[in-house]
Each structure stands twice: as structure tokens, then as C-alpha cells.
Design a protein that fits this description.
Number of helices: 5
Strand content: 25-35%
Strand order of the largest sheet: 6-5-4-7-1-2-3-8-9
CATH architecture: Roll
Helix content: 25-40%
Structural class: alpha+beta
CATH class: Alpha Beta
Largest sheet: 9 strands, mixed
Radius of gyration: 16 Å
Number of domains: 1
CATH topology: Bifunctional nuclease domain
Length: 185
């Protein structure tokens, strides 16, 4: 098994099926570049997640996503082309038709158990920010070869520190209620 596969399995084994509540995060709003580290499934909960790795911060951000979105992201990571356009291909095609260029994707927030993302599209001299689910935004970014970034406040609140061979859970629980640290992961 590759290191990438081990990382995906390890993170998915430790994470709960759903996060709830709101993340406690710092007020900083700078963006951290991330790479898609992989997509995997937790065999116990049958939940799928995409893992975003911030090399500069040594943090991994897991985002639970649907199986269809996981399949789309996996196809783009593996360079698999479908004979007909899938939804994310359609979005890319529409941007091309309307002379828009995807400048990047930002995972911008986490509220009420939900991650939020933005597609940053440039058309002529206009920058358009489009609200999107992170899974869809990540798939379109992979299709377009656009960068993906995460707001520091989200990454610091919900990212797992990769400390050598171990993953250290977030120092703040991702919920507003007081939960014992042993139940965060």
C-alpha cells in the first residue's frame, strides 16, 4: 500500500461520519494553498472524504463528500476521461463558452456542520465569486488545473497535524458544545 493510501485510510478511520456545530477559529483570513491528497472511504461508516494537504502548515483537512463527488474527484486525479461530459465538465465548458477563467477555489468557512467554498472566476476585468459545495469546487478546480486554497481559520480549526507517522487531531473541537477530547476524532 502506498503512503498516500495509508494516509487516506488512517484519517478516515479516525474521523467521525459527520462533524456538527461551528468551528472555533482565529480571525485571520489569509489563504493557505493545498493539494488534494486523495479520496477514500471509511469501511466502518461507509462515508467518503476528500483530504486536502497543506504542506506549508503540515496539516490535513478532511471534508466528507458524497460518493458521486468522490468518484468525480478520483477520475480527475487519475486522469480518466468520460465519453460524455459529466457535471463538472459541463461547468468547465460553460466557463469556456462565457469566456470565464477559473482563477482558483477557496474553502472559505465551516458553519453548522457545513463547509463552504467559492469558485473565483475572472471574465474580462471582472472577478466573480460563486458559492459552491467544496466537493464540486474541488472537482472543477482539478478539471481546470486551478489552485485550491483554504482559509487559515478553517484549516487551523479543523486540520489534522501530520506529525511524522501520526495525525494529531485539531486542538479545538469542531463543535460549539463542550465535548471530551477523546470524542473529537
Amino acid at each position: 500500500m502506498t503512503l498516500k493510501a495509508v494516509v487516506v485510510v488512517f484519517i478516515l478511520t479516525l474521523l467521525p461520519t459527520f462533524l456538527c456545530g461551528c468551528a472555533r477559529a482565529s480571525q485571520q483570513t489569509d489563504l493557505i494553498p493545498v493539494e488534494v491528497g486523495g479520496v477514500g472511504m471509511n469501511s466502518l461508516t461507509q462515508s467518503t472524504a476528500v483530504l486536502l494537504y497543506a504542506e506549508s502548515e503540515n496539516l490535513v483537512l478532511p471534508i466528507f463528500i458524497g460518493r458521486a463527488e468522490a468518484g468525480a474527484i478520483s477520475r480527475y486525479l487519475d486522469g480518466v476521461h468520460t465519453p460524455r461530459p459529466m457535471t463538472h465538465d459541463l461547468i468547465s465548458n460553460l466557463m469556456d463558452v462565457f469566456a470565464g477563467q477559473l482563477e482558483g477555489v477557496i474553502v472559505s468557512d465551516f458553519r453548522d456542520s457545513t463547509y463552504f467554498a467559492l469558485l473565483i472566476i475572472r471574465r474580462d476585468n471582472e472577478v466573480i465569486r460563486v458559492d459552491a459545495r467544496p466537493s464540486d469546487a474541488i472537482a472543477v478546480a482539478l478539471k481546470q488545473g486551478a489552485p485550491i486554497e483554504v482559509e487559515r481559520k478553517v484549516l487551523e480549526a479543523l486540520g489534522y497535524l501530520h506529525d511524522g507517522d501520526e495525525f494529531v487531531p485539531p486542538t479545538h473541537p469542531p463543535v460549539s458544545e463542550e465535548i471530551p477530547p477523546t470524542e473529537w476524532i
